[in-house]
Structures are given as C-alpha cells and as structure tokens.
Amino acid sequence: MRAHGAVILQYHHVSETLPAVTSVSSETFIKHMQYLKDHHFTVVPLNELISSLQSGKELTDKTVAITFDDGYKNNYEQAAPILEKFGYPYTIFVNPKLIDEGKSYVMTWQQLKALSKKGALISNHTQTHNYMHLKQQGETDAQWQARTKNDILAAQKRIKEEIGHDYKYVAYPYGEFNNSLQALVKSIGFVGIGQHSGAVGIHSDFTRLPRFPASGFYSKLDTLSTKLASQAFTIKALNYSDSVTNENPPSLSIQFDMQDFHKSQFACYVSGIGQADLNWTSKDTVQIISPAKLKSGRSRFNCTAPSIEKKGSYYWFSQPWVITP
User: Fold this and answer.
1) Domain 235-323 is in which class?
2) What's the start-to-end Cα distance of the chain, in Å?
3) Which of 75, 148, 201, 272 could be disulfide-bonded to 79 (CB atoms 3.0-4.6 Å)?
4) Distance between CA atoms of 35 and 209, rounded to whole angstroms?
5) H helices then E strands: how many in the chain?
C-alpha cells in the first residue's frame, strides 16, 4: 500500500508530578508504546524519516518517529528505560546553553551522551528556548537575522562537540514560527519542526514539519489512535499572510491534489470557535476563514478529510497562528 505520510509524536515530560498540560504519566506512556507495538507501527529514528521524505521515498505504512522537547531529567529517569524496553528510537531536542548553565531540570551532557550511545538522537531546540521570531527592542531585520542564525548555529556546535551529532533540525520553541524565520532556517540548510498537528509526507514544507502533541489533553488513546493513522494532504500551494499576524480573523487558501478525498467531506475547525467557513474558489482550491476573531496568542485551524483509498484514515493539516495585538 502506498503510504501518504508518517507521523511524528511530540512529548515533553514523562512524570506524575509536573504540569499535566505538558506531561504524561509513566503508565500512560507505556500504554502509548504498547499501542504502537500491538498495532504493528514501525518506529524509526527521526533522521531516517526525514531523509526518506526529502529524497522523495514513500515510507511504509504506519511509520512513526518519537520526539521529546527540552531534555528534561524525567526523560532520562522515566522515558528512556521504557523506550529501551520496547527497543524504540527517539529524538530529544535540547537547549545547550541551559545545559551548560547547569539548570536543575534538564539533563546533563553526560546523561545525554549515555542516551545517545543507546541510540537516542540529540538535536537542536535553540540555545535558551526563546521566542525565535520576536525582535528585541530597536532591533533591525538584519540584526534579528544575525542573532537568530548565531543562536541556531551556536546550539548546533555545542551538540556536535558534546554528542557528535550534527543533524540539521531545529524544533521551534513553543512551536512558533513566521515567514522570516522559515526563510532563515531554509537559508542555513536546516529543517524546521513545529508543534502543530498533522502527518508528514514527501510534499511537506520542511521549514514547518508538524508533530502531534501526545501529552496532557492530547494523551488520550481514543483520539491519539486516529492521529496515528492520519495521512498528509498533497498540497500544491499554501497561501496566507504570515503565521504570526495581526490580521484577525486570519485566512488561508490551499490548493490540493484532490485524488483521494471528496471536497464535500473536507472540514476545518478553529480552536475555541468551531467550524471554519470554506469558500472553494476552484475545483481544487479552498479559502478557509474563521467566522469570528481569534483570541490573542496561539490558535490553529485544523483541517481533515477521510481518505477514499484507506478506509478509517483521515488526511490532517494544521495551520498554527500567533495573533498579535
């Protein structure tokens, strides 16, 4: 069977004592991993998944990569032993400057080295987890570009020095990015990875790869199982002003390859508002508009359509927004 995409899962904490919104308990995490095993998912290293897609190689059906953001100590203490038991590879996105400063809540380089020797990939989450798209007071575009580029490359250098890894992937802190940041990431040869939902495929934009958050509210297996079976839309063109915008309500248009879903079954939902308004401007292009203004801060449009070819599987696309005053 031709696979339309793969899924990248995103975790933060595996802990019973830390904020539930970004945590799963060890018990729940084990249930997630057991589900992958019982349903015959192929769990691959992130670099294998990305390199396959970049080369245009369709992945086998039910391919998954597992990732963690921030490099918390509970990843070492609780998540790693569970993953080792299942034999699953995984990636940890870290902030090197916070490690160098000896912050108590993150793993040490020694711990990360130990995990890397067992197969974990260690990758770039910037130096200190700042909002990458924000300019400092009085900063010009050129100064922002130079500072942000230096931040990414300095973090990459430390990871290479300590671990030996040089995978040019950067997970955007808070999942936030704008057009300028995407262009910068592309210009230095990096893959940009967000926190918005959706499957990934050979037609994905590699400056904004989606991941399905699997912690907190999103850890429930009845909904996570649907996401694990999702597929990536083939998008020919995606047009919107910017992901970080004061346009409110925002809108976007998408041109699709329509071969495997019916236009009548395509639907989009706006976080906190409900169903989006759809305007099909041609046989394969839709304009998506929120019926009401979004709250300031992070929001999403989530769009799905059931596959014709693969019964029970949904195409899934998410557009993240950061609404500014």
Assistant:
1) mainly beta
2) 47
3) 75
4) 24
5) 9, 19
- What whole-number distance in Å separates Cα of residue 93 and Cα of residue 88? 17
- Span 91-136, pLDDT tens digits: 999 999 999 999 999 999 999 999 999 999 999 999 999 999 999 9
Sketch the domain layout of the chain as residue ranges: 7-228, 235-323
DSSP annotation of 218 reads G
- Tens digit of each residue's pLDDT (9 = 90 or more) over 28-49: 999 999 999 999 999 999 999 9
At residue 168, the pLDDT reads 98
Instruction: Say how many C-beta atoms besides its own lie within 10 A of residue 316's C-beta.
Output: 23
Phi, psi of 148, deg, nearest 5: -70, -40
CA nearest 124: which of 177, 78, 67, 55?
67
Among 109, 52, 117, smallest CA distance to 84 is for 117
159, 124 Cβ separation under 8 angstroms: yes
Strand spans (E) along the chain: 7-11, 13-14, 23-24, 42-43, 63-69, 91-94, 121-124, 169-171, 191-193, 212-213, 235-239, 244-245, 251-256, 267-270, 274-275, 277-282, 285-289, 297-306, 314-323
Query: Cβ contacts of residue 278 below 8 Å, gap of 6+?
Result: 266, 267, 268, 286, 287, 288, 289
DSSP 156-201: HHHHHHHT-----EEEPGGG---HHHHHHHHHTTPEEE-SS-B-B-
Task: Kindly state the average pLDDT of the residues 308-318.
Answer: 94
The superfamily (CATH) of domain 7-228 is Glycoside hydrolase/deacetylase (3.20.20.370)
